[in-house]
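User: Structure please.
Assistant: Input sequence and predicted structure:
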Amino acid sequence: MFAIIYIGGIVVMGIVLVATIGLCFGVELLMARPELAAVVRGLVPTTQIVSNPAMLYIAIGILGATVMPHNLYLHSSIVQTRKVLPDDPSKREAIRFATLDSTVALLFAFFINAAILMLAAATFYGSGHQEVAEIGDAYRLLAPLLGTTVASTLFAVALLASGQNSTITGTLAGQIVMEGFLNIRLPPWLRRLITRLIAIIPAVIVTILYGEKGAGALLILSQVILSLQLSFAVVPLVYFTSQRSKMGGFVNRPWLAATAWAVAAAIIGLNAWLLIGTFRAWLA
């Protein structure tokens, strides 16, 4: 019972943090007033994403930041906290709610990432500040470019909420992996300490050695690494859920399995192409 209340509290906190991020960037978009036609055109993928290594690197980072592989395990664990009866109708109801939960979460992540890009394009690119690439520069320039100090404050609050939300989900996912895959049974405080230190120590070392610029580069690299790891979570997920021997009546339908494999192949292909381009750049 305590575990259910604990997970429920974490979910509510996550919803509050995500809503805070969305509200902050929503207000800033109203201040920036991006061109709607340009926004719609920007949602259509172009061949430049594949042909331009710099664009592909950022696109892969956005993919990793939106569909974080560890959240697949987290959402699966949250489903198990529901009190589900052993009959099929109850299981289908749990799956339906889990699907709704993950879909809403991914949609929020998509719109938030899109809002960040739209804000940057409308505020910096439109005013001739294309050189802005660091979070610190964006924070300092938002107030003068949008004409109010509220813009910088909202940006800082959104980043704080985003960091806290990522910390919560990352820590919980680490605990779940340690318990379920590695079968490591430790006190909750020790599990959280270990998973947080694994994430924080590299960031602290890079910040000390390379400063703010290094931290920004590490942030993007971490998102790219998340995308590279995504294949190792998606492929087993699609494989196991497409096997009737394991899923029974809940097995993926043929059209769903085909779509899922196509998405997995696209993720693997983009990541492989990025690695090939990176190795070519190193060899050159």
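The CA atoms of residues 1 and 209 lie 46 Å apart.
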